[in-house]
Amino acid sequence: MQTSARLSEIFSSLQGEGPLAGERMTFVRFAGCGAGCRYCDTPAARSVAGEFRVEIPPRSGSFKCFENPVDVETLDRLTASFDDPTVSVTGGEPLEQADFLAEWLPSLSRRRRVLLETNGLEAGALARVAPFVHVVSMDMKLPSSCGGEARWARHEEFLRAAIASRGETYVKMVVTAETTDQDLGQAISIISRVRKFLPVVVQPATPTLSFSAPASPDRVESIRRLLGAWLPDVRVIPQMHKVWGVL
Asked: How does DSSP classify residue 176?
């Protein structure tokens, strides 16, 4: 049983991705992720460091470092001064630390709205924490976009678990210049089988120091049209925090 968490950072900012873009939230970023997406824009959170940083005071842009790992009591103390109505539990991949989430989220969810931002691969872990999550932001990892193996069966299992939790769920797909229509077709099939009317967000990948193959505006529009021919709620939303220049 994991009774402590490995974190990357805690801060307050505007949500920059998905249909909740523009809402101010407290972000608790967990460290560690095995997905290995080539367009990842938070590479520091892929692995666990000896320290993590906390914005003190909130919304100041100033940070203080603390040692990993932390227990529930310490995390509650570190987040006590953050007064945003929503907490984004993000990463890395937070569901890789589901034991800790199962200890921490019950009390948090009684006080704040909880948004879980996840790679959509850990259905069993989601089932453990879903009663304490209000909104699930599920990435659907298109292999042609992120690189690596296809994970369609795991994505479908996860999406079914998210729908069964009866909370709010939306699907996000990061697209690049390499995104194929075949992968989009697989995603359409899964969403159509599970729940056709879910919001689906097309998120153009943002160039980073290690990634330089973003999709062109014409390609993004063709992706939107293809998805929209089969799914009724498709939205193109870029990473707005990059546009606004905030964390």
From this structure: B
Three-class SS of 65-88: EEECCEEHHHHHHHHCCCCCCEEE
Q: What pLDDT score was predicted for residue 118? A: 98
- The whole-angstrom separation of Cα 194 and Cα 226 is 19
What span, in angstroms and rounded, lies between the C-alpha atoms of 215 and 19? 20
Q: Which long-range contacts (CB under 8 A, 24 or more apart) does 49-56 make?
A: 49/8, 52/6, 52/7, 52/8, 52/9, 52/10, 53/8, 53/9, 53/10, 53/11, 54/9, 54/10, 54/11, 54/78, 55/9, 55/10, 55/11, 55/12, 56/81
Q: Residue 232: which pLDDT band, with cuts at 50, 70 and 90?
A: very high
Q: Specify the residue for token string 């931002």.
A: 117
Task: Answer whether residue 2 shows pLDDT above 80.
Answer: no
Distance CA 166, CA 156 (A): 16
Q: Which amino acid is at 21?
A: A
Q: Which two tokens stand for residue 163?
A: 């729908």
The count of other CB atoms within 10 Å of the CB of residue 35 is: 19
Contact in structure between 96 and 34 (CB atoms under 8 Å): yes
Q: Which two tokens stand for residue 202?
A: 């097309």
The rounded distance, in Å, linking the Cα atoms of 145 and 179 is 5
Backbone φ and ψ of 114, nearest 5°: -110, 120
Distance CA 39, CA 176 (A): 8
5 φψ region: left (φ > 0), alpha (ψ -120 to 50), beta (else): beta
SS3 154: helix
Which residues, at least 6 apart from 224, have a Cβ–Cβ distance to it below 8 Å? 202, 234, 236
